[in-house]
Design a protein that fits this description.
single chain; 2 domains
Length: about 375
Amino acid sequence: MSTHHGPVVIKPICEVAKYQRNLIPANIPETYALKPMFKSIADESSIRNGIVAFRDFLYLFCDLLISDGQLYANPPKKPTSMADYPFLFNITNLLVDMGYHGKLSDCGTLLIIIQLPVCTASIDENGKKVQPKISAKKALECLRFLSLCGFEFNGIDLDARTFSISPMQQIEVFYPDNPLLLAGLKALSIADMELRKGRRYWNDNNLLRCDYRLLKAEDSDMRDVIIDFLHPLPENVREFALLLHQRYTDMGLTCINTRLGLVSFAYANIKKSGRSTPERDIYSKRIWEFSYLIKDGYCLFVRPKKTEKYADVIKSFDSSLQDKIAQGYGCDRKRNEPCQHGCQGIRIPLDESLLKAGKDIKIWLDNEVLVS
């Protein structure tokens, strides 16, 4: 059996930025209660408005990458994914460090930075010196790019050839266009470091998604989350996707929003019990899911298990859908092919073609729920 994933063909930075831009929430509510842990940062209104300001900064950030990203972000020699741009990981982790370790001034117009661990050498438990995660050169590149997006820095010479933070050195961070952004950045950074489910990895860009929902005192309604997820799609496609969500949650399926390497809403028929089922177990039992991937875009993935039990029903479907079901899904490597994540399911793009097969897809999913 083949064990390789095949060569990675990295996407241009403009396409990665477009992908990232679609993950930014389009509709952030004006009012919502925050978890008590954020009250020490600023008043709730300032934090909420600061999150909106950070969202607007992210639009500017992505737009600049879309137009001129090739001038700033270069892929590694051996990329591990289609979106493997170290520049994005560096700038994300630098922003998190600034927000998490920075102290917001009393007037709220600047962040005072006296440490940036990602840019500082450290000593491990064996007494060995560990180099910074972001080199001085790369840190300066990130700070220069942030300055193009509206940030200003006192205590750093952006024209210098090197960059370091010495003991007792102080850096002041400003965002003149909307100083409330700094409170939003600090709150989002704390949430990113302390409130995320699962482990926080170096090479993810969760902060760039402006996930304000982590800060909310109450859980968000799943329907509202899906509406935000679908916002870049045509209205008729969004409506059909929401219809599927409502139809199958009404039928008793459990829906989870998972970030296991992707942005996904998975639907599983979980037998009710007194114990809660771990998210990973729910995902492994999914019947279908909505997914947004840099490779495939917005898709519906279906993982049929027992098509032989309703084979006569399938014969009534459109021929193209019949062909997809007949081809099935599974591990590409078992077919001696490079891994293309075929185990995720039968892929159907979330576009106008989905609507043409809409009736058949509902019947298909209905039958899968009945036999699951």
